[in-house]
Amino acid sequence: MSQSSGRHGSGKISRRGLLALGGALAGGAVVAGASPASASTDWIRLPVVTANIGRTNLGAREAAIRDVRYCDTGHRPLVGWQEIREGDGDSRERSYITRYFGDAYANPFLWHDTAYRVPLSVPAPWTVVSRGSTFVHGGISGVTPPRWINEAVVRHSRHPALEFALINTHYIANAHNGSRNPDLRDEWDLHKQKHKDRVLAHHRAGRAVIWTADTNNPDYARATGWKAERQVFFRGIDRINWMPGDGRVRLELLGTRTVDMRVDGHDARVALFRIRLV
Description:
Layout: E1 19-20, E2 44-52, H1 61-69, E3 78-82, H2 92-100, E4 105-106, E5 120-123, E6 126-137, E7 147-156, E8 159-170, H3 185-204, E9 208-214, E10 230-231, E11 238-243, E12 249-259, E13 268-277
C-alpha cells in the first residue's frame, strides 16, 4: 500500500518515556515466564489508535479517517473506532474506512449487523485469528444506541506465537460526564463490569490485551482495577490501556501523539508501542 504523510498531530511524546507492563525489569519491560519453545523476535513497531469520528462537522470525516490511517508515517496503525454510523444518517464513514483501510487491512465488525458502531482495523502482517462481540445494554430513545464490546485476537503472520487481544468499545454518555445523570449510571456500571470481564478473560488465557475506548468518564483509570493494567492517557474520555498476559509477549510504550480530526470534540489518540516475542 502506498504511503503518504497526511495531516496528523504534533507527535507529542509522553514524558514518562518507556512505560511497560508490570515493571520489574530494567527499561520498564515485563517478562513473565517466556515459553522455552518459542523463538524470540526483534522489536516490531505497533501504533494503536482510538478514534471517535463524531458527528458535528460531517464534511471533515473523510480527511479525519485518512489522517488516522497515516498517523505514523511508514507504519500501519491498528485502530479502534467509535461512533461509526451513529447519528449521521449515512454510511459514508464505513465507505471511507474501507477506502483508506482496505488494502492490507482487515476491518472486523465494520459491516456487522448490530455491533458496527465500534469496529476495528487490523493491518498486515497482523491477522485476525478470532473475533467476538459482547452485548452490553439496549438503546434508550433519545439517549443512547445499544452498546457493544468488540474484540479480536490478532497474530503476527510470520511469528505464530506472537499474538495479543485488541478490544474496543464506547460507553454511554452523560452518566459521568455532561449532565452527569445518575439514572444512567446503572448502564455505565454494567458496561464497566463487562469490559473488565473481557479484559481479564484474555489475560487469564495468557494473552496480552490492548483496549481502546471512548469511556465517557474523564476520571476513568483501569477497566480491571488491577495495578498490572497500564494507562497510556491520563486525561480526557478517549483512552488506551494495556494489560500483560503470561509473559510470552513483551510490550513497551514508546510515546504518544494525537490526530486533530476536526469532526467533533474528539482528537484521535495514538499509542506508539513496540512488541516482541521473548
